[in-house]
Each structure stands twice: as structure tokens, then as C-alpha cells.
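User: Quick one: structure for sequence A, then sequence B.

Assistant: Sequence A:
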Amino acid sequence: MSPRKTLLGLASIAGLLFGARLALADDAAPPPTTSPSPGHMREFCKQNPGKCEEAKAKHAAFCKENPEKCEQLKQKRAERRAYCKQNPEKCQEQRAQMQQHRAEMQAKCAADPEKCQEMKQQMRERMQQRHGTGGSAPKPAE
């Protein structure tokens, strides 16, 4: 597969996962999924032990119920890490774009919370239709 197609595929997957995560997000702050620091999950777990344990339990339950899907996601993460090792500047650029998009969405939600709730509900319904569940796979705690 060409690097361009790979990049487009990864960007599409990231967009879908972000959209699903945004739609499924509740008002409580979820564990962070991206961070410039490698130990961001350890830091999050130190600050939020209850939420961290909840996320770990959710991930374990998902993997127990969906071992194939869990393994696929694990493989995709490994591929992404390898890609980012080879292309750190592209990954940093993609991360910056995603953070900018996230900030824009948060601003829109702050400006119109009712519209935001409608968008979240629509995304939940779409994800349910696509996957037959309430959402996507949980992010693993590192």
C-alpha cells in the first residue's frame, strides 16, 4: 500500500474514532487518549485512580467479549506506532490537526450545549447501527 493511501486510511480511522468518542463522551472528563508525553496514562491514573480503574475494567470486559476485535485494534496501534517512529513530523502534524479539531468542537459545544447533545445522540445512533453496540472499543490504559 502506498504511503499516501496508508496516511489517508489512518487519518480516516482517527476521524471515525474521534467522532465516535466525541459522540459517546459524557460530561465527566474521560482518560486522555493522546498526549505529547509517553507516560500520560500513568500520570492520569495517579490523578484519577477511580476513573483509571474503571477504564481498565471496561477495556478488559471489551477484550473478553471481543477478542478478535481487541487483537485487531492492538495490531493497528502497533502499526501506528511504527509509522510514527518513521514519520514523526507527519504524526505530530496530524496530532496538532486533531487537537485543533477537538478544540473547535469543544468551543461549539460550549456555545450551544443543546446542539452538542443532539450531535452526540446522532453519533451514538449511527455507531449503534454500524456496530450493533453503544459505541466503539475503549482505549486501553497503558
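Sequence B:
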Amino acid sequence: MIGRKVTISTPLSAALATLLAITACATAPHGNADPTQQQSPFPTGKSGTSIHVTEYSTATADVTLNNATWVSSGCSGGGGGCNVIELTIVGKSDTPFSYSETYVTAASTPWRQDPYRDIQGGSSTMDYQTINKVPPLRSGSVINGQTAHGFIGYGGDVKQGDVYIEFNDPNAPAAPTPLAGWKVHT
């Protein structure tokens, strides 16, 4: 019986091929079709998480998004609502770590590398006293042992719900360059 070939009839081979195809499909790992599950190209966390951030200048800091809230009225001249985040930045290097409300952006859509994405920098015209969120976090830098703390508000273009916050490097050659991000719900 050595060297003898066994032939399978055509209807049987077709049924066998179909069975193998069904088995392969049923046992193969399935991808997630949800587009919101995109991985970001930078470290991310949720509200309350601290992320160690290194800027292009090699300056480092631990940046914590303490919380995020939706303020229903009083945010702008028209009295509309807004998202407000609270940040704490602790310097960890002798090189100054820079920050600015315009480089901490917010969006209603998930992270993706798209220069035309609906991102919005923090508002420099919001009346933080009216909405009882003081002090505002404007711009500056911290070095080893120094701490900056404050609030950043975003106008009505960033809607209530899931909000994607990015901490961008203002000094990167291809600015804005996201260094860290948080997904929060307001």
C-alpha cells in the first residue's frame, strides 16, 4: 500500500472544503469593529491618573488630570455650557517643563493622527470666577519640585459626554505633538 494515492469524489471534497472554511471562520480571532477603541500613539489614562511626560526639550513632569466636569451655564458671554478640567503638573527635571492652556486640547472624537480633527485649546476668555473654577491654569513652566495647578475650560464646541484631552508639546518641531492624553466623561 505504499505509494498508493487515495482519491476523494468531487461532492465529498467540496463538502470537506466547506467544512474546513466554516471551522476556520468560527475559530479565528475576531477584530473589534468599534472605531472608538483606537489606540493612541501616546500614553493615556482616565480622570485621576498621573502620566509621566517628557517634552521634546527632555524636560519631564508628572501630569495629573484630577477631574473633569460639565458646567451647564455661565461659561461664555451667551451663558452657554462648557467642559472644565483640573490639572496638576509636578516638575521632575532641572530643565523647565512648559505648559499652556492652548496646548492642552480637548475633542469630542477619539484620538487619531489627523491635523483637521475637531480639537480645541483651552479658553483664555472664560470667566473662571463666574463658574467657580479657580485658579485658571494659563501658561508657564515648572522645574524639579515645583507644582502648577489649575483649571482649563473649553467652549461649547466640545460637547458634554466623552471628552478626549491631549497634553501637547508647544516646543516640538512638528507641533502640536501630543505627549499624553486622558479620556474622561462629563
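DSSP finds one helix and ten strands in the chain. The radius of gyration is 25 Å.

User: Thanks, that's what I needed.
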